Amino acid sequence: MLYLVGTPIGNMGDISSRAVEILSSVDYIACEDTRVTGILLKNLGIEEHKLISYHEHNKASKGQELVDLLKQGFNVAQVSDAGMPAISDPGEDLVKLCIEQDVEFTVVPGPVAAITALVLSGISTRRYHYEGFLPNSGSERRKRLKELPKYDETIVLYEAPHRLRKLVSELKEEGFGPSRAAFCRELTKKYEEVLRMTIDEAEAYYEQTEPRGEYVVCLEPAVKAAPVFDDEYIDSEIRRLREEGMSVKEIAKVLSDATGFNKKEMYSRAVSLLKS
Ligand code: SAM
């Protein structure tokens, strides 16, 4: 059986008793960095010899080796350096392999940096988009950045300190300047810090202050400019609503309700536009 075991994101007190029980009893523990997990195990008084390295760069070959051990009947735990495996961490691939090869697995839940930050942020937790790390650079990064203003829920990002300033200015370029954000670092640790400010304010703040530590950034959706109800807007709405299958009468009602314009006017505009 494979156990995906959540481990602390900083505060060792956050390890669950079930996690300790599983880590103590399994035959092998697959981890990203044997030094990091070695320290955790030492703190818990668990032997380190069962560690197997499993990370982003060896996951293609090591994943199958782990599945083979599971098929032989060994119990294996998988942990990441911090928090929940498979959340911006290898683990996701191991889950897929287990499903493909019909190998049993379960989760021993623990802290997640994204969720911890979201709760601390004061920004809506009702609906959120987990973005995690943006690609480091290049067109892939630009592509993801261009997508962000389309979300109308809270956005949760992970970022390394040396790229935080860049991230803030990129978010500003994409129209997030007035959006409120929470910059969360050292979560669950002694010097936990949550700074709540707009992206515009963050740009000024981080010009003066060197970003330190790993960050979770929670972000309000981009403020979208209110549409201008000009002829061009009305005509494009008529075409769009028609494509959705509405009758001219329905289009006139929807547009009149949305803009406050006279329903008869909207009706005759739709009739003449759609016959041309
Ligand atoms: N699996 C982890 C989880 O459950 O959240 C995330 C692992 S991801 C490789 C590491 C990133 O998580 C860091 O770069 C940072 O953005 C965030 N992170 C992890 N621990 C954190 C902490 N104590 N404070 C702030 N951010 C943290």
Account of the protein in words:
- This protein has 276 residues and is of the alpha/beta class.
- The protein folds into 3 domains: 2-111, Cobalt-precorrin-4 Transmethylase, domain 1, CATH 3.40.1010.10; 114-219, Tetrapyrrole methylase, C-terminal domain (Methyltransferase, Cobalt-precorrin-4 Transmethylase, Domain 2, 2-Layer Sandwich); 231-275.
- The protein is 44% helix and 17% strand.
- The protein is built from 11 helices and 10 strands.
- The protein has helices spanning 17-25, 34-44, 59-71, 92-100, 113-121, 138-147, 164-176, 199-208, 231-243, 248-259, 263-275; strands at residues 2-5, 28-31, 51-53, 76-78, 105-108, 128-133, 154-159, 180-185, 193-198, 215-219.
- It has a 5-stranded parallel sheet with strand order 3-2-4-1-5, sandwiched between helices.
- Residues 9-10, 80, 82-84, 87-89, 112-114, 158, 160, 184-188, 214-216 line the site of S-adenosylmethionine.
